[in-house]
Amino acid sequence: MNDRQITDPGLPTLLVATSGGHLEQLRNLYPRFLPESASVEWVSHTSEQLEALKMAGHVVHEVPYIGPRGYRALTQNIQPALRLLRANRYARIISTGAGIAIPYALAGKLFRTPYHYIESQTRLNGPSFTGNLLSRLPNINLYAQNESWANSKWRYRGSGIDGYTAERVSPPRHVSRVVVTLGTMRRYGFRRAIERLLRVLPTVVDPNAEILWQTGCTDVTGLNIKAYPKVPANDLQDAIGAADLVAMHAGVGSALVALKHGKAPILMPRQSDFGEHIDDHQALLANELSERGLAIATSPDALTREHIIDALSTKVLREVRPPKFELATTQGTS
User: 267, 278, 285, 308: which has the fewest C-beta neighbours closer than 10 Å?
Assistant: First the structure.
C-alpha cells in the first residue's frame, strides 16, 4: 500500500519520543524529512525538553514516563495512544524510540496511519530491543542511522551527525566557563564521572571558573559542588554555547547539543558493570564520534589533562543545510 495514497498532506505529523536523547534526536532530525511549513505535534514525557517545545508554540501531548525496560509503564501508554489517534487524524507517525514507540506503532496500525521508526544513533551494530520488537510488525518503515547494518528491512537515509566536521584550533588561554551534563536519566547515577572531573579540571581551568554541574539523579553528597538535577533545556543549550569546555556522559542527546553549538565534547560512557546504565551502548557512540574527530572519548577513570586540552583544541563545524533524510513513500516490508 502506498503511503501517498493513505495520507493527507494537510494533516499534521505526530512525532513520538522518550525524553532525553531520543527526543533530542527527533528534534534534530525532523527538519530534514519534513518541509518547514509542515504541521507537527509531539508526544513525550514531562521534561524540560517538552516544556521548551511548548514554550516555542508547538502542540505537545504529555504521557506517562516509560523507563528502560519499563514494561508496565509501556502498557499504561496504550490507552493514551488510542485516545489520541481516535480523536485526531495524522498524516504519519515518526518515532526515534525508545519504549514509547511501541504503543503508538500499535495504535497507528489500528487507525491505518503510516508509521516510521528511526533507530537511535547509538545503535551502531544492530537494532535495539524496541527496534527488534517493531521489526516483527508488518508494514512498519524502519531506518538505521548506521549504514553498516542497513538491509532490505532497515533502510539507511542518513544519520543525526551528518554534515558535521571538525578542525583544529588554538586552545583558549583561559578556561573560565565549563558545562558538565549527565543527562536526565531517572534511575542511573554517574558519580564516578563527577569525582574524576573534580580531580582533573583544576589542572586546566581557571581557579575561579564558572562550572555548571547538571547531574540528573546522581548522588553528589560530600562532593562540595552546586549541583542541578535538571536545567531548563534552553538554558542548558545557552550555557553549552557559551562554554569553553563541555564534558558529559556519552548520551546521544547531550552530544548532539554540544555538536550543534560547535563544541567537541569530552564523552564519558556509562558502564553497566558500575550500575550506570542497562547496557554499554554509550561506548559505541563515544567511539564513533571520536573516530570522526567530533568528540574526545574516554572512560572517567582514564580522563587526563591531555583529554581536556584536546577538546579545547577542536572546533566543530556544520553544513548550513544538512542532507535531506528521505522518508519511505511505500510501507515497510512485512
Answer: 278
pLDDT in tens, 10-19: 899 999 999 9
- The structural domains of the chain, with segments of one domain joined by +, span 3-156, 165-318
DSSP string covering 246-292: EEEE--HHHHHHHHHTTB--EEE---GGGTSSSSSHHHHHHHHHHHT
User: What residues form DSSP beta bridges with 200?
Assistant: none
Phi, psi of 270 (to 5 degrees): -70, 150
Task: Give me the mean pLDDT over the 44-64 stretch.
Answer: 92
Do 51 and 132 meet the contact criterion of CB atoms below 8 Å apart?
no
Q: Check: CATH 3.40.50.2000 for 165-318?
A: yes
Residue type, 239: A
Amino acid at position 148, single letter: S
pLDDT exceeds 70 at position 125: yes
Strands 314-318 and 164-168: antiparallel
Q: Smallest Cα–Cα separation from 119: which of 106, 132, 107?
A: 132
Exposed, middle or buried by CB within 10 Å (0-12, 13-18, 19+), for 333?
middle
- Per-residue pLDDT tens over the stretch 31-51: 999 887 789 999 999 888 999
Q: Which of 206, 210, 207 is nearest to 239 (CA)?
A: 210
Higher pLDDT, 64 or 198: 198
Among 3.40.50.2000, 3.30.160.40, 3.40.630.30, 3.20.20.70, what is the CATH number of 3-156?
3.40.50.2000
Instruction: Please list, in sequence order, all residues whose beta carbon lies within 8 angstroms of the beta carbon of residue 274, skipping any fewer than 6 positions away.
Output: 192
Best CA proximity match to 176, nearest among 112, 245, 113: 245
Mean pLDDT of the chain: 92
- C-alpha cell of 85? 489517534
For residue 194, how many other CB atoms are within 10 A of its CB? 21
Q: What is the pLDDT of residue 3?
A: 39
